[in-house]
Automatic annotation (TrEMBL):
Residues 73-240 form the Ribosomal RNA small subunit methyltransferase E methyltransferase domain. This is Ribosomal RNA small subunit methyltransferase E. Its EC number is 2.1.1.193. It comes from Variimorphobacter saccharofermentans. Residues 18-64 form the Ribosomal RNA small subunit methyltransferase E PUA-like domain. Gene3D superfamilies: 3.40.1280.10, Hypothetical PUA domain-like, domain 1.
Amino acid sequence: MHRFYVETNQIQGETVRITGPDVNHIRNVLRMKQGDELIICNGQGKDCYCIINKISEYEIIAEVKEYSDTGTELKAKITLFQGLPKKDKMELVIQKAVELGVYEIVPVMTKRVIVKLEDKKKEEKKLERWQTIAESAAKQSGRGIIPRIRPVISYMEAISEANKMDKGIIPYENAEGMHYTKEVLDQCSNCSTIGVFIGPEGGFEESEIILAKENGILPITLGRRILRTETAGLAILSMLVYLLED
């Protein structure tokens, strides 16, 4: 069954109004008709099983037959604090992190970040592009929410945010062995909020790791191999999915 996302205010009682680009997709690409069934998600974890009542050039009106929880979200909200990588690596990170269940993604300026987003208009354009990728990945993977891609923040701001979460973890090549990683991850199994830090191509400076530790964010290892920035986040998220999936 085809699935679409709407804003909460587009669902009024038992009626859903679909507007925007999805109207053309439903009418002219999928060629759906009155009486056809589809799933509408409110982007907050609720699915509406609907039947199309009316199709016009500018909107589609559907009747809600049943509500249910989407059932695809992890029991903990994971925030990925990603050190800004070069070129289009961030797009890959966003796509795969959303598929794996991340709650939100925050680009972070660390000391070894090479990319500089000094032009506000260019940054806004990048954020718009990144959010579109997140929406597409959420739809493809059947997410109950569309994860938000937040504006770029400093490393200090990221540390301050993670300090307020139930658990903060930061993969680091010089951290203790895998036995310690397993202990830390086990502690995440009962958390409601988790912050995950991933460094850029050059990794973290030792002073950044020290600052993280001072704020209760735990350095862990992901094994004896050095992982690329676009691989490290997916590795730790996969481990967390295994722990948190109901």
